[in-house]
Design a protein that fits this description.
Layout (H helix, E strand, L loop, with lengths): L2 E5 L8 H14 L4 E5 L5 H5 L11 H5 L5 H4 L1 E3 L4 E4 L5 H8 L8 H7 L7 E5 L6 H9 L2 E7 L8 H14 L5 E10 L4 H14 L3 E7 L2 H5 L7 H4 L4 H18 L6
Parallel strand pairs: 1-5, 1-6, 2-4, 2-5, 6-7, 7-8
Antiparallel strand pairs: 3-4
Helix pairs in contact: 1-12, 6-7
This protein binds adenosine-5'-triphosphate (ATP) and magnesium ion (MG).
């Protein structure tokens, strides 16, 4: 059975997609069978995995509205070594169409059940909102990974996300928990970032992942080549950090209290 994790933060541009794509590639590099689900109409995780979002016959949109199975809609990221349930701007329409459908929050969960045995990890890249799409991600998942930049306003908005996660856990998905906060785009030369990083550890303890993802230009360059950073330049510091994060996730999932 796959461990299913949402990468979520309703703030824009905090590193959700970079984290989903590179964790997927980092886990695949360590022999894990991975499915990446792109739940963002921007389709950045799709493109960043080397799959052209303009050429999709079927996508996660068709899966959500019941027009395709995951098996029929998934594609292979050859560069990343994992499967992708891709997305493009059609997905924006799902938001509206889902409102009239039964079980509108749990459609992704139901669809993923059919392939859960084929993967060790399913990673869901959420859009920057607490929308019905994100809700589908949270309903389908065992846990949430929250990427954060160590900035002055880092904690702003976190309370909303935590409340949403608690509400989903209480009403729709009792399995759901916060797996951890991931410090990303970290620049150790900046005193403020070090201070905020320490505050996160003081406040959230072992809910803060040990791995820290540095700011690294190779990670930012990789999507323009349709490659995960881990495949584009594996020796770069950013890629190495995501491989290390993959190992940390594997270890956490093996720990009995962490596995749902
Ligand atoms: P959105 O909310 O729009 O979906 P996001 O949270 O998915 O955004 P990303 O797209 O992953 O964020 O990252 C935002 C920008 O920061 C991108 O240009 C990305 O290449 C860059 N970036 C992400 N992580 C790093 C890093 N560790 N080092 C350098 N650049 C990074
Ligand atoms: Mg994104």
């Amino acid at each position: 059975m796959a461990s299913i994790f949402c990468v979520a933060n309703q703030k824009g541009g905090v590193g959700k997609t970079t984290t989903t794509v590179n964790l997927a590639a980092g886990l695949a590099a360590q022999g894990q069978r991975v499915l990446l689900v792109d739940l963002d109409p921007q389709g950045n995780a799709t493109m960043g995995s080397g799959i052209d979002k303009r050429q999709l016959a079927r996508s996660v949109y068709h899966v959500l509205i019941g027009m395709a199975s995951v098996g029929a809609a998934r594609a292979r990221s050859e560069a990343g070594g994992y499967d992708v349930l891709p997305a493009n701007r059609e997905l924006a329409g799902a938001e509206v169409e889902l409102v009239d459908l039964d079980d509108r929050e749990s459609r992704l969960k139901a669809a993923l059940a059919a392939v859960a045995d084929e993967y060790d990890f399913v990673l869901i890249d959420c859009p920057p909102s607490l929308s019905l799409l994100t809700l589908n991600g949270l309903c389908a998942a065992h846990g949430v990974i929250i990427p954060m930049q160590c900035e002055y306003f880092a904690l702003e908005g976190l309370a909303d996300l935590v409340n949403t996660i608690k509400r989903v856990a209480a009403n729709l998905n009792p399995d759901l928990k916060i797996i951890g906060l991931l410090r990303v785009m970290f620049d150790p030369r900046m005193t403020l970032q070090q201070q905020v990083s320490q505050q996160l550890v003081d406040k959230f303890g072992d809910k803060v992942f040990e791995t820290i993802i540095p700011r690294n230009v190779r990670l930012a360059e990789a999507p323009s080549y349709g490659l995960p950073g881990v495949a584009y330049d594996r020796s770069a510091r950013g890629a190495q950090a995501y491989i290390h994060f993959g190992a940390e996730m594997i270890a956490r999932c093996r720990a009995p209290q962490a596995h749902p």
